[in-house]
Amino acid sequence: MEQVKRAPLADQAAELLLERIRAGEWELGQKLPGETTLAPQLGVGRSTVREAIRQLAGRGVLASRQGAGVYVTALDVPEEWDAVLRRADLVSVIEARIAIEAEAAALAAGRRTPSDLRAIRRALDDRAANRVDIEDHVDADTRFHRSIVAAAHNPILTELFDGFTPRMRQAMVEMLRLRGEFGDDADHGAHERLAERIAERDGDGAARESRSHLGAMKAALA
Amino acid sequence: MEQVKRAPLADQAAELLLERIRAGEWELGQKLPGETTLAPQLGVGRSTVREAIRQLAGRGVLASRQGAGVYVTALDVPEEWDAVLRRADLVSVIEARIAIEAEAAALAAGRRTPSDLRAIRRALDDRAANRVDIEDHVDADTRFHRSIVAAAHNPILTELFDGFTPRMRQAMVEMLRLRGEFGDDADHGAHERLAERIAERDGDGAARESRSHLGAMKAALA
DNA sequence: CCTCTCTACTTGTCTGAGGAGTCGTGCTAC
DNA sequence: GTAGCACGACTCCTCAGACAAGTAGAGAGG
Question: Which domains does chain A have, with CATH numbers?
Answer without folding.
Answer: 3-72 (1.10.10.10), 81-221 (1.20.120.530)
